[in-house]
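Render this sequence as a predicted structure.
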Amino acid sequence: MCFVLFLQCETKQSQSEDASATTEKQSTTLTAKAINDFRYNEYILSKDTEETVSNWDEFLELSKHIEFLKTADVTFFTQDLVTLQTFLNNMKTNIPDNINTKPVNARLLVLETRILKLHNDLTLDNIAVAEQVNSIQELLVASSNLNFVINKKLELEDYDIGRPE
């Protein structure tokens, strides 16, 4: 009888260890579900803005990689730091003249900072997955805010009303 009781306790203990190991394994991998559970105001580009940035190749490429990031594909953000910085410098250099303003440049700087922080969080081994997800979420917000500022800049130009004399 003692043997049966011991066997039942051992079985329950191994089941709980299996469950904790599964939970631990899930918490150590970056998933699209963890990224998509984050709620924020996602601004997309208006048609006018899409036309304006259609020749800004770096912005279009970054937008594509941010969409991949939402599916937990982080390969672009884990590449060599020099390559990433060169890409970001080219992005700032090749900004179209009609949206090259202080507010847009400020949002670009925030986006650059979030990209570099995400790069560090993804490439360092001692960063927890929760912190990596947080960095991804910060990058998504920064990208959305850049879209918002670009949209507002072009919208204000369209509705520019002259001052009375």
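Summary. Residues 31-158 form one domain. The radius of gyration is 23 Å.
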